[in-house]
């Protein structure tokens, strides 16, 4: 397999790359991973190739799969108008570059896997949400939908697309858990608001495993003969376009998450950050902390993926 990854050096892309190399070496399969980057001097493992966006615009290389993960962190800072523009541009520009490459390539990729987030569904409380569910309009939805709709244009060139809507990824190396470790270790961690909001999470190990599963399943079945109405997306052509929720099958309330994290670290969790303070601190972005989403991985489970860490306890204790 020859795979191109935007965002390859990030929290998810780097873990994906390591696991894919480990699996393919164990199976004596050929593999070439290329990270797409804006900085040609970026540090990277010796066995991973690097390609800048300028080089992509002129290359005659071909790739079996493109994994599109580039994008600024949605929860990294307050959503000012400038920050919203940055969040959108950091997703749109890399995707546009990938689409331009696909359009002029004589040997098209067999699959484009493009990132998104469960924010696509908007705020819907504790209502169970699967890939066939509708959405509530807010900034997170619009950001995700604009990104998804752009990626789906790859189907116009005959390239199948898999959209992966990612939940809260659990691993101490980064993401939400990485940011929470310091305050919790100091004994000042606690629940957010009333703690009743549902958190749809996934371990990084299962995120990586699910992404590889989706890729290998698609390559083995290019026509996606097992696609269903539950996770197929509407396009203007017959090229397959699917969506998967990359979340664990057991979402939990924030209160439960807080207690589990405190227990794992052997630290108290007496503190509470009230809703009004979260809104004051984070503005509109506080919706990510206050308003829950109960997003379920129906398409993954229907396709036969078996979660290695289906419970939060396992995700915290079985870190790799």
UniProtKB/TrEMBL annotation:
According to the lineage, what is the superkingdom?
Answer: Bacteria
UniProt domain DUF1731: residue ranges: 273-318
Report domain NAD-dependent epimerase/dehydratase positions.
3-220
Q: Do you know which Pfam families this protein is assigned to?
A: DUF1731, Epimerase
SUPFAM superfamilies for the chain = NAD(P)-binding Rossmann-fold domains
UniProt-listed PANTHER family = EPIMERASE FAMILY PROTEIN SDR39U1, SUGAR NUCLEOTIDE EPIMERASE RELATED
Protein name (database record)? DUF1731 domain-containing protein
- Biological source species: Psychrobacter saeujeotis
């Amino acid at each position: 397999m020859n795979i191109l990854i935007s965002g390859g050096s990030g929290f998810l892309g780097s873990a994906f790359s390591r696991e894919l190399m480990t699996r393919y070496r164990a199976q004596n399969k050929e593999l070439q991973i290329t990270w797409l980057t804006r900085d040609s001097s970026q540090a990277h493992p010796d066995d991973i190739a690097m390609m800048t966006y300028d080089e992509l615009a002129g290359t005659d290389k071909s790739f079996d799969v493109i994994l599109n993960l580039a994008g600024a962190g949605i929860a990294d800072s307050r959503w000012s108008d400038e920050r919203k523009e940055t969040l959108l541009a950091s997703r749109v520009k890399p995707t546009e570059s990938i689409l331009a490459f696909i359009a002029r390539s004589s040997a098209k990729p067999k699959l484009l896997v493009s990132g998104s987030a469960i924010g696509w569904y908007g705020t819907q409380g504790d209502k169970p949400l699967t890939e066939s569910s509708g959405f509530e309009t807010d900034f997170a939805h619009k950001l995700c939908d604009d990104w998804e709709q752009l990626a789906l244009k790859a189907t116009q060139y005959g390239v199948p697309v898999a959209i992966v809507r990612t939940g809260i990824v659990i691993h101490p190396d980064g993401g939400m858990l990485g940011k929470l470790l310091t305050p919790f270790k100091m004994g000042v961690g606690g629940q957010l608001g009333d703690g009743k909001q549902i958190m749809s999470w996934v371990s990084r190990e299962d995120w990586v495993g699910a992404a590889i599963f989706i890729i290998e399943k698609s390559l083995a079945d290019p026509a996606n003969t097992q696609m269903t109405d539950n996770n197929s997306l509407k396009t203007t052509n017959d090229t397959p376009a699917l969506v998967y929720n990359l979340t664990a099958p057991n979402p939990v309330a924030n209160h439960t998450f807080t207690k589990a994290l405190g227990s794992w670290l052997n630290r108290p969790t007496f503190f509470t950050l009230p809703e009004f303070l979260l809104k004051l601190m984070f503005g509109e972005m506080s919706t990510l902390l206050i308003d829950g989403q109960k997003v379920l991985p129906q398409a993954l489970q229907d396709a036969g993926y078996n979660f290695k860490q289906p419970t939060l306890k396992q995700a915290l204790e079985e870190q790799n």
